[in-house]
Design a protein that fits this description.
- There is one protein chain.
- By secondary structure, this protein is α+β, with helices and mostly antiparallel strands.
- Helix content is about 35%, strand content about 20%.
- It contains six helices and six strands.
- The strands form two sheets. A four-stranded antiparallel β-sheet has the order 2-3-1-4. The protein has a two-stranded antiparallel sheet with strand order 5-6.
- Helix 1 crosses helix 3 and helix 2 crosses helix 3.
Length: about 170
């Protein structure tokens, strides 16, 4: 299976994972079987790790969600670096993403969601801060999402409905 074909498939399904192998094949001028085989192989190899839906919770009535970025400063463990603590943090269901950073005063950045700022604060206080080798944390709450995973949340209609003032 060619790496070029796989890359083209990844680019297409990265934009819209709901497309069928048949639709992707038609877009690429390939056979459905070749595309299905490539996708299956990339799933097996862990290149495709899952299929996710981008949800704009701000537009869903009755559901409040809070997103936060947590900076975590770590004292690395000899021979393990940051891997052990990152793996441990990754197991918490509240944690959506864990990134090892460079050029920052924090070693790890966590992306988490909770039902309230208080829930996130308790998560950090009860689960992250007491961990061995965690030196400090900093919590940054997301006030509004304009774009996430290449999806723009504010539409042209939202912008056009603002009151225009002419002086």
């Amino acid at each position: 299976m060619s790496m070029e074909l796989k890359k083209k498939i990844l680019n297409i399904i990265g934009e819209n994972s709901r497309l069928s192998a048949e639709e992707v094949a038609a877009m690429l001028g390939e056979t459905t079987e070749a595309v299905a085989e490539a996708i299956s192989e990339m799933e097996k190899d862990g290149i495709i790790g899952g299929y996710h839906t981008m949800i704009n919770w701000d537009r869903f009535e009755g559901e409040d969600r809070v997103t936060a970025q947590i900076g975590v400063k770590i004292a690395p463990v000899r021979g393990e670096g940051f891997d052990r603590i990152a793996a441990r943090i990754s197991k918490f269901e509240e944690v959506n993403s864990v990134y090892l950073m460079s050029g920052s005063s924090y070693d790890l950045i966590l992306l988490i969601e909770g039902e309230s700022m208080k829930d996130i604060a308790h998560f950090v206080y009860d689960k992250i801060a007491p961990m061995d080798s965690v030196v400090s944390t900093a919590t940054y709450f997301v006030m509004k999402k304009y774009k996430d995973h290449n999806v723009i949340f504010e539409s042209e209609k939202d912008i056009d409905e603002r009151m225009q003032v002419v002086l």
